[in-house]
Amino acid sequence: MKKLTPYFFATLLIISGLSAFANGGNDGVSRDRKPKKEKPKKEKNEVRTGWTFGILPSVAYDADKGFQYGVLTNIYDFGDGSAYPDYFHSLYFEAAYTTKRSGLFRFSYDSKYLIPNHRFFIDVSYLPDALCDFYGYNGYQTVYNGGWAKKKSEDYISRAFYKSQRDLFRFVTDINGHIGSGWYWNAGLGVLGYKIGPVNLDMINKGKKEENRLPYVDGLYDKYVKWGILSPAEANGGWHPFIHGGISFDNRDRQQNTKRGLNAEAFLTYYAGFGEDKGANSLIFNANFRHFVPVYQDKITFAYRLAAQLNVAGDAPFYLNNYYNNFFIQRVLYEGLGGGNTNRGILRNRISAKSYAFANVEFRFQICKFDIGKEHFAIGLNPFVDMGMVLQPYRLDQQTIIENIKQNDPEFDLNNLSDYIVFDESKNIYRPHFSGGLGLKAMMNDNFVLSVDWAVPFDKRDNHSLANIYVKIGYMF
């Protein structure tokens, strides 16, 4: 953690300096885009007006994805300051890559004033991942053998044993409108394009010394295909246009760095399929409840999130079940469960099922506030506990799997099947997965939040490592 602290303060100085150039005295947009409801007046030095932006190195670290390098910028228009700390317009650009061969190329636009009385959002992303985590189905029903992926272990098989290749293209546009008394309707449409497959070992090994090359052996993903657990259609991915709609309630005081209020939503998403996966039509229900309780002024907040995703109709491929549906996407990608966006400290995609639920509970402490130029900064700490669990598992029939192994993977020793799958559902599938840790936050203008979280699982079956650090933009919820 000590090595990450200088990055916080370097970031604060960079975005403060660059935003000074961006603020040319523009007092906002035209009067017809001002909020209709006047908010209590604030002291002049507490309000940010006009345009502000920062161009930053996209330097981050994720225990699952590795060290990230690239560039990002977030451009805000606070207008005349009448909506502060909310913004009139936000444009976000990022291009980055990680040392574990995970890419990020994203543009998003968010505004409550482009269309009067409506929030409008667009996201266009391309997310290639040459080493995407794949730990099998149903949480604890799939055995995690950490030594199989560690080169120094006596049980080492391959560093890519629990990996697959997953490239994702995403286009999403969402809109909401006010119904009354904090209630909103939400609607949106988009398309997800997945390219799925085993790890491309030729690409990974290209240019490496012999001792650093990955062995040409089957990983868990290959075995799931041979054993018939993954169907031929879903094993390669597909294109899935979708529409979603629902209702929400929101009386939070602000979107980022929230101090009080609650945000709840319920919505349905319909996915269609094309090509080999054209039969994968499905209807998925999502429910989210976020509550922010002030404990002491604006310095201590108790925050928690309860969420569930249920496959209510159809037969969605595993990668769509892994994709956690959201309106107005804040972080790049919510998937799994497990990892820095759902259950910190637990391996990414460790909990893969048709339906699942999770919870995040944390205290948010504001340690100090200060100004650099015209920008307002704050530093915070947040201890937290996360939980995830399977609600509707995939059906893994032992006899069917054995027959598929005999036919398609005859060299596999069936006596070792228990090293991969535990066929005792009552003891494993529905058991909750817990983790906990501590977060450090640096905030600018109550909107831009640089986040560092460290977490560990409560059960080693979820992750053998204690060095689970996630450096990201924004609070997790």
Question: How is this structure best described in words?
Answer:
The protein has 477 residues and is mostly beta strands. The chain has one domain: Porin, CATH 2.40.160. It is built from 6 helices and 17 strands. The chain has helices spanning 5-22, 201-205, 220-226, 318-322, 398-408, 425-428, and strands at 51-57, 60-62, 66-77, 89-98, 103-111, 118-133, 163-180, 183-197, 237-250, 261-271, 282-296, 300-314, 355-372, 375-392, 433-444, 448-457, 468-473. The chain has a 17-stranded antiparallel sheet that branches. Strand 2 (60-62) and strand 3 (66-77) form a beta hairpin. The longest helix is centred in the N-terminal third of the chain and has 18 residues, at 5-22. The chain is globular, with a radius of gyration of 23 Å. The two termini are 22 Å apart. The relative contact order is 0.14. Residues 1-42 have low confidence and may be disordered.
List the helices and strands and how they pair.
Elements: H1 5-22, E1 51-57, E2 60-62, E3 66-77, E4 89-98, E5 103-111, E6 118-133, E7 163-180, E8 183-197, H2 201-205, H3 220-226, E9 237-250, E10 261-271, E11 282-296, E12 300-314, H4 318-322, E13 355-372, E14 375-392, H5 398-408, H6 425-428, E15 433-444, E16 448-457, E17 468-473
Antiparallel strand pairs: 1-3, 2-3, 3-4, 4-5, 5-6, 6-7, 7-8, 8-9, 9-10, 10-11, 11-12, 12-13, 13-14, 14-15, 15-16, 16-17
